Amino acid sequence: MSQIRSVVLGCGSYLPARILSNDELARSVETTDEWIVQRTGIRERHIAAPGEMTSDLALHAARAALANSHVQADSIDLIVLATSTPDFTFPATAVTVQAGLGITRGAAFDLQAVCSGFVYALSVTDAMLRTGMYKRALVIGAETFSRILDWNDRTTCVLFGDGAGAVVLEAQEQPGTTADRGILTTHLRSDGRHKSKLYVDGGPSSTQTVGHLRMEGREVFKHAVAMITDVIYDAFKATGTSAEDIDWFVPHQANKRIIDGSAHKLGIAPEKVVMTVDRHGNTSAASIPLALADAVADRRIKRGHLVLLEAMGGGFTWGSAMLRW
After folding, report:
1. Do 8 and 118 contact (CB within 8 A), yes or no?
2. Against a cut of 0.90, is the pTM above it?
3. Are both 200 and 88 inside the same structural domain?
4. Catalytic site includes residue 252
5. Which of 46, 187, 212, 252 is catalytic?
6. 3-class SS of residue 163
7. Residue range 22-47: mean pLDDT, rounded
8. Which of 11, 60, 115, 194 is catalytic?
9. Quick check: is 223 catalytic?
10. For FRET with 97, which of 1, 84, 238, 253 sits at 20 to 30 Å CA-CA?
11. Same domain (yes/no): 126, 203
12. Is there a single domain that holds both residue 257 and residue 156?
């Protein structure tokens, strides 16, 4: 029986011009390039310029995605922007992007699930498109994590960077099999008992300040692989697929050791893993769409390929999405 699927028409990305290398970081905090690379796989990250806001990054990525999709901005009737670093407490950064694109119809809102934000946004958008409420959507992950880092804390400031990525989704009728184009399944989880392991120590209701990112790195690492693989097994079960069927694995780009460990446990071959953490660092909700755009730009990901996404973030939140390009 035929089914409405959320089909990816195209994707785009944007990275701020400034590149901050490990060697440059080592001049301001007690660390080394060797130490960072060995423990995280990160060699450099991009940092937003003074005055360059999350909405600016998102708008660049959105325009790139629209161009890649060969569609006009006024055909978009839904924008869902995943971010933990909005321009303002309100309004939503998504409405700034909407206005920047000249869109005056439909809906736009932000979604906050930290590093899992893009997967959560895909799932929410997919559900809304399949109901018939909307026809064509922009799903964006955009972050300026450099604004919430304690640059004297070497355990966190070496990990994160800024950037944005976006995809255009369109509701299309498909035959209703796993050979369909579009999002085939999504699986979302959260467990608030782990809040203290990865959080920001500020907010409007608590301290009336923005605060800084705080993390218990070993605890996050300890939980990551098990949580990630849990929702991926759910995706395999829901679609009747296995690791062998996957063409590309596009994980959240947090740490090379977590990515390698997850792929190994799942039985996904290393050559199928898209890795950008070395050049981007952890860009939170932006990391998956940035990696997707990277793999599409160099023609690794092609039409018909089966692509598996996963992420884990503060909360803890975690999730997976499987789609056919």
Report:
1. no
2. yes
3. no
4. yes
5. 252
6. strand
7. 97
8. 115
9. no
10. 253
11. no
12. no
